[in-house]
Design brief:
Elements (H helix, E strand, L loop, with lengths): L1 E4 H8 L1 H10 L9 H6 L3 H25 L6 E4 L5 H4 L10 E5 L1 H10 L13 H26 L2 E5 L5 H12 L10
Parallel strand pairs: 1-2, 3-4
Helix pairs in contact: 4-7
């Protein structure tokens, strides 16, 4: 299987496109000050901006996937692969699975994963920035669940009761009809 990691590509390979887009919109080429992104707006404003950016970013993903050459099935994963964008290009909604953390699992991640407990940016109010980010993420997740439900896409809540191997088994079972038959099975 070939994996396409949205977050990796979005955070690195798409940066030139992001700069070009800002310039085309008459904006400065550099990223806005971190406070303008994480501290000043409300979580609702942050979620709305994130959701509004997804369509453009999805076009970049499609470019990446069109250029990807693989003799294996491609599994594309990441939070920008929104149900409303992916479903129209699938032959069946069964080819998509939306995985979302429960609030309890998100809290668990904050306690045990150092990177989950910070925005990763130098801001004037780190506590507010983190609170805003978490609420924004919750709102974007909620939106994905509503879209998936409306479009008949399975939603898998990750709550920490299954280990990574068990979650991988659920995902493999979901996609089993679309995977090549392995010799000896």
């Amino acid at each position: 299987m070939t994996a396409y990691h949205y977050d990796y590509q979005d955070g690195r390979a798409h940066n030139d496109r992001r700069v070009a887009r800002r310039l085309a919109l008459g904006e400065p080429p550099e990223e806005p000050h971190p406070d303008a992104v994480w501290v000043d707006p409300t979580p609702e404003e942050m979620a709305a901006r994130t959701l509004a950016d997804f369509p453009v970013r999805f076009e970049w993903v499609l470019d990446d996937l069109r250029a990807l050459v693989s003799g294996q099935p491609v599994l594309a994963e990441g939070w920008g692969l929104r149900p409303e964008f992916v479903t129209p290009i699938l032959d069946s909604p069964r080819r998509m699975l939306v995985m979302v953390p429960t609030d309890e699992f998100r809290e668990h991640q904050l306690r045990v994963l150092p990177r989950a407990g910070t925005t990763g940016h130098r801001v004037s109010d780190p506590v507010r920035a983190q609170r805003n980010r978490l609420e924004r993420d919750r709102l974007v997740t909620e939106d994905a669940v509503h879209a998936a439900t409306r479009l008949g896409i399975r939603v898998l809540e990750v709550d920490g009761t299954r280990d990574a191997d068990a979650v991988a088994d659920v995902v493999a079972d979901h996609f089993e009809p679309y995977l090549p038959v392995r010799p000896g099975t």
